[in-house]
Amino acid sequence: DNLKLLERDCMTSLSKYEKENNTVYLERLPSADALVPIVGAQLVKSTVPEFLTSKTPSEVFTSVVPDTSARALSRYTDMVDTTARELLDRLAGSSDDARIKLRQWELPDLLVALDSGSAAGLPDALRADLEELSKHNGSLTHLNDISVQIGECRRQAEASLASAEDMLKGEAKEDAELRDQFKERWKRPPSEGLTAMLWELIAGYR
């Protein structure tokens, strides 16, 4: 673009000067062949500074960049590498956890089986439940009956857990009373140590 602009300016100037010469100066212009050829001129000469002739590129760079800057750059590079490794390790760990969870939930095989419309790829327990539901035409009434049964089972389980808690609390109270009464003669291990596993089981069912 710059070359075209320069060429246009030159042609405009040439036309202007030719017109002025033909009307005012009336000078005889030599032909292009009679003119001295234009040759290029070397405006800049490349030379290597004397203080660089005896140094390697690394030595030159060391003299240009301060040692403190080089150390800071090295620390920054190490920090970036460490951060990248940590993030990659976290990503790999999360990917492994996701694969384990998907395998536990039998995904994506389960979704593929559902999309295909075939029950062959479903887990046995789920396939049995679906077959049982299909016997009742998948009715909402049957689902409500199952929900009621589940609720009743839950109430019974909660009642059993509450009864077990009461028994353990009563046993702990009795142990504390006997321990306070007989002091060092009461050789039985403390109740909380004997029933700790039972309390953990109860907490796990809550």
TrEMBL record:
<keyword id="KW-0967">Endosome</keyword>
<keyword id="KW-0963">Cytoplasm</keyword>
<feature type="domain" description="ALIX V-shaped">
    <location>
        <begin position="121"/>
        <end position="206"/>
    </location>
</feature>
<dbReference type="GO" id="GO:0005768">
    <property type="term" value="C:endosome"/>
</dbReference>
<dbReference type="InterPro" id="IPR025304">
    <property type="entry name" value="ALIX_V_dom"/>
</dbReference>
<feature type="domain" description="BRO1">
    <location>
        <begin position="2"/>
        <end position="82"/>
    </location>
</feature>
<dbReference type="Pfam" id="PF03097">
    <property type="entry name" value="BRO1"/>
</dbReference>
<dbReference type="Pfam" id="PF13949">
    <property type="entry name" value="ALIX_LYPXL_bnd"/>
</dbReference>
<dbReference type="GO" id="GO:0043328">
    <property type="term" value="P:protein transport to vacuole involved in ubiquitin-dependent protein catabolic process via the multivesicular body sorting pathway"/>
</dbReference>
<dbReference type="InterPro" id="IPR004328">
    <property type="entry name" value="BRO1_dom"/>
</dbReference>
<protein>
    <recommendedName>
        <fullName>BRO1 domain-containing protein</fullName>
    </recommendedName>
</protein>
<dbReference type="InterPro" id="IPR038499">
    <property type="entry name" value="BRO1_sf"/>
</dbReference>
